[in-house]
Design goal:
The protein is an alpha/beta fold. It has helices at 12-24, 79-90, 100-112, 125-140, 165-169, 180-183, 194-203, 227-240, 259-264, 290-293, 312-325, 330-351, 377-380, 385-397, 418-432, and strands at residues 46-50, 53-56, 61-64, 118-122, 144-148, 186-189, 208-213, 243-247, 270-274, 284-288, 357-361, 364-368, 400-401, 410-411. It binds pyridoxal-5'-phosphate.
């Protein structure tokens, strides 16, 4: 593969466009982490993406491990997805009425995801999470929820408590504008620490509507759950009459065809989805047991709606993406390549005398600049952020686009080739030697 060399790396056009954007958009972006605040330097402005690559407005080519923050699991602008989208485009971009594509994608989700018997599509992961919260409260008649330090569930008020990457990257513990009343019922436990959950249940008897978590964390960096922790949550929720929700917006269809719940063999009551399920178009979804989901309007009294929900283009991209992911061996192959990648990066770090730890599950990976293991957000904060910033810049200048924050996971896709991975490891060795 040919990307760029450090000597040829230019950012004149990116700088010009971002300078103008800062006058037009708050911070020059439409989503905070894109602004490179935590790694320093200026963000790169993209021109186009294809397969595992991104091309910027200065002609630089990158191997991309952000993948639009998750959706691009079949590679960017996948030909099969694009062809289906073009065909659908001719039939209209939005109906605001039922279409059969919604049934098709719903059946695919229900087939694949153990906890889902019924699903509601919406337009983002944030919408999915705030809606599922309403379901948990409506179903149980209780108001309090348990979330975990460092887990992100979108930017709705009740979740902006110890919410991981984006918020943390800006150094804001919480966001101004979120009223106390909105977060007063959000109780925070420590990830991988079942005792911290038991304690909250004991102190709030019969008051907890549900527990929500990232079943593999991607928003404090990449953190793997102990299987016993997930099993413990299932037991505690059952014992206390609370609902368990896996927020699989990031992990859904990325760590397994049946999401993290299939991978770990622990079935929640409710699941939120996004990213991959929209194949690069704006989609979110939440689903669960029929008896719970039937509370959602118009089947039941819990209101939730959306002008563009179930949008035919988004459904089409989701259907084709899940079809492609059904190819035999898709996840095994992603696992093999991603393992090679992360092991190569860790070796490059150790060979150059750095403390590093990390890992992957299928197409999701990450590492920290500290001695491991990292099991919680508290552990993650031990990572050397200055070093991460220099690592990020060094890789960028050598044609490797990584998430611009230590507190984000990395993503591979089916189209990353062995050559792309080998190139990345070679550059990792170069950069680790300079840190
Ligand atoms: N939940 C998780 C686990 C996420 O990673 C994200 C986004 O990164 C969200 C929810 C919010 O999704 P969206 O950005 O589509 O609103």
């Amino acid at each position: 593969i040919v990307t760029i060399t450090k000597a040829a790396f230019k950012t004149d056009n990116s700088q010009r466009i971002f300078k103008e954007a800062q006058d037009l958009l708050p911070g020059g972006v439409n989503s905070p982490v894109r602004a490179f605040k935590s790694v320093g330097g200026q963000p790169i402005v993209f021109d186009r993406v294809k397969g595992p690559y991104a091309f910027d407005v200065d002609g630089n080519k990158y191997v991309d491990y952000v993948g639009s923050w998750g959706p691009a699991i079949c590679g960017h602008a996948n030909d099969q997805v694009n062809a289906a989208l073009i065909k659908q485009l001719e039939k209209g971009t939005s109906f605001g009425a039922p279409c059969e594509l919604e049934n098709t994608l719903a059946k695919m989700v229900i087939d694949r995801v153990p906890s889902v018997e019924m699903v509601r599509f919406c337009n983002s992961g944030t919408e999915a999470c705030l809606s599922v919260l309403r379901v948990m409260r409506a179903h149980t008649g209780r108001e309090k929820i348990i979330k975990f330090e460092g887990c992100y569930h979108g930017h709705a008020d009740p979740f902006l408590v110890q919410a991981g990457s984006g918020v943390m990257t800006l150094g804001l513990p919480d966001s101004p504008g979120v009223p106390k009343g909105a977060t007063g019922t959000t109780l925070c436990a420590s990830y991988n620490d079942i005792e911290s959950v038991k304690k909250i249940f004991a102190e709030n008897k019969d008051e907890i509507a549900g527990v929500i978590l990232e079943p593999v964390v991607g928003n404090s960096g990449f953190i793997v759950p102990d299987k016993s922790f997930l099993e413990g949550l299932r037991t505690e929720c059952d014992a206390n009459g609370a609902l368990l929700c896996f927020d699989e917006v990031m992990t859904g269809f990325r760590v397994d065809k049946g999401c993290a719940q299939a991978y770990f063999g622990v079935t929640p009551d409710l699941t939120t989805m996004g990213k991959v399920i929209g194949g690069g178009l704006p989609v979110g979804a939440y689903g669960g047991k029929r008896e719970i989901m039937e509370i959602v309007a118009p089947a039941g009294p819990m209101y939730q709606a959306g002008t563009l929900s179930g949008n035919p283009l988004a459904m089409t991209a989701g259907i084709e993406t899940l079809n492609i992911l059904s190819q035999p061996g898709a996840y095994e192959e992603m696992d093999r390549k991603t393992k090679t990648l992360i092991e190569g990066i860790l070796k490059a770090g150790k060979d150059n005398g750095h403390a590093v730890c990390g890992g992957n599950i299928r197409g999701m990976f990450g590492f920290f600049f500290c001695e491991g293991p990292v099991k919680s957000f508290q552990d993650a904060t031990k990572s050397d952020l200055d070093k991460f910033g220099r690592w990020h810049r060094g890789m960028l200048e050598r044609g490797v686009y990584l998430a611009p924050s230590q507190y984000e996971a990395g993503f591979t896709g089916m189209q990353h080739s062995d050559e792309d991975i080998a190139y990345t490891i070679k550059m990792a060795n170069e950069v680790m030697a300079t840190l």
